[in-house]
Amino acid sequence: MIIEVDFSGDIPIYSQVRDQIVIGIASGQLRPGDALPSVRRLAADIGINVHTVNKAYAILRDEGFIIMDRRSGAEIAAMKKEDGPFIEQLKGRLCPYVAEAMCRQMSLEEFQESVASIYHSLKM
Amino acid sequence: MIIEVDFSGDIPIYSQVRDQIVIGIASGQLRPGDALPSVRRLAADIGINVHTVNKAYAILRDEGFIIMDRRSGAEIAAMKKEDGPFIEQLKGRLCPYVAEAMCRQMSLEEFQESVASIYHSLKM
DNA sequence: TTATATGTTATACATGATATAGAACAAATA
DNA sequence: TATTTGTTCTATATCATGTATAACATATAA
């Protein structure tokens, strides 16, 4: 799996790395049990600092996406089904986007269609 | 309209102010033509610096949500219907959230239901 | 005129986030 | 023994964020 980073954007590098790995898991490119490149390896491949990759990995670990072992490295975790608190947290983060879409006269159906478009582009 | 800010959170204050005004417009609490409080007034009400409010207002102006006049103050703008580029930009920002939901075994329908929940909570 | 209020701009400062760099540690493997 | 793993530590540089103070041009009201 190839990870690319936009250095000129306003999204932190560690956040971009985190997002792309999550997208990789969602799309099936990364499956539970798969080994991730070591922090040094990935840092060298992308051309960034080891600490930046380590921060992304630590976040993914705290979020339950990966399992890290000091000796064997990092691998994709098997995740449980989402619970109530996650959905509430998700709603809170989505709210500003839904609100902006409503201001721009986007219907609920149009918004949901965009979500479906993302969903299917990841699923295949 | 009351604007409250979380100082301990990880979301910048100017971003929180921006989001809450957008939510106010989406919910109909703020309508096109309505006057916004002056930057000094709102800053005093919330208990933050004038420049922080000014930054939020400047962003809202750049995004087309409000119209600012050096003499008459700021007011809510009448917005056109969203265009193609906006939807593409929106998809890019939503993608990580959809991906995370998929990793947590959330179905498309469940995600869309959350969006609908937000939509209706703003609409009423 | 005078006073007040508006957005706007400028400078300065403090703090935290971000990213880099180099080094070292404990544990496991080849 | 040598290498690799995640992890931790110190250090530095840069940018974002937030505050503080001041001033400006413009408009309105007393």
In short:
With about 120 residues, chain A is mainly alpha-helical. In chain A, about 55% of the residues lie in helices and about 5% in strands. The first copy, chain A, folds into two domains: about 60 residues, Arc Repressor Mutant, subunit A; about 40 residues.
Output the keywords.
homodimer, 124 residues, mainly alpha, Arc Repressor Mutant, subunit A, two-stranded antiparallel ribbon, 57% helix
Task: Give an overview of the whole structure.
- Two copies of one chain form a homodimer.
- With 124 residues, chain A is mainly α.
- Chain A folds into two domains: 64 residues, Winged helix-like DNA-binding domain superfamily/Winged helix DNA-binding domain (Arc Repressor Mutant, subunit A); 40 residues.
- In chain A, 57% of the residues lie in helices and 6% in strands.
- In chain A, strand 1 and strand 2 form a beta hairpin.
- In chain A, helix 1 packs across helix 3.
- The mean pLDDT of chain A is 95.
- At the A-B interface, helix 1, helix 4 and helix 5 of A face helix 1, helix 4 and helix 5 of B.
- Chain A binds a DNA duplex (30 and 30 nucleotides) through helix 3.
Helix and strand topology:
2 copies of one chain form a homodimer.
Chain A lengths: L12 H14 L12 H8 L3 H13 L3 E4 L3 E4 L7 H20 L4 H16 L1
Antiparallel strand pairs in A: 1-2
Helix pairs in contact in A: 1-3, 2-3
The first copy, chain A, binds a DNA duplex (30 and 30 nucleotides) through helix 3.
